[in-house]
Amino acid sequence: MTVAGLITVDSRFDADATIQRLIRALEAKGITIFARVDHAAGASSVGQALRPTTLVMFGNPAAGTPLMQAAQTAGIDLPLKALVWQDADGAVRLSYNDPGWIAERHAIAAHPAIGAMTAALAALAQQATSGD
Length: 132
Hints:
This protein has a five-stranded antiparallel beta sheet with strand order 1-5-4-3-2. The protein has a single domain, classed as TT1751-like domain (TATA-Binding Protein). The protein is built from five helices and five strands, in the order βαβαβαββαα. The chain is an alpha+beta fold and about 130 residues long.
């Protein structure tokens, strides 16, 4: 499944391990974790089933603020988010918004923060999903 602006990486770990690896990688980089939303627990609280699906919201105000100064509407997509989810076949994946897509969506001209965010997210996803 391809979704515009969404990058999805396969994980070699189960959902819980992938989430924990992501959180450790974020903390090691000094990136603020703003929230963790367990959608499966929410579904369970209303008597419905959902495979593991957890959203982690994180960011660095020093990197995100310049983007919101360029276009305040970027605040709808910031802080950054990563979704760890398990598909119907049991495969675990990590998905996040491509910073280039965020910039395009909000008509933000070329900005050095976009390249840095793109590289950082790719590295974080790699650490969380493959252990490299």
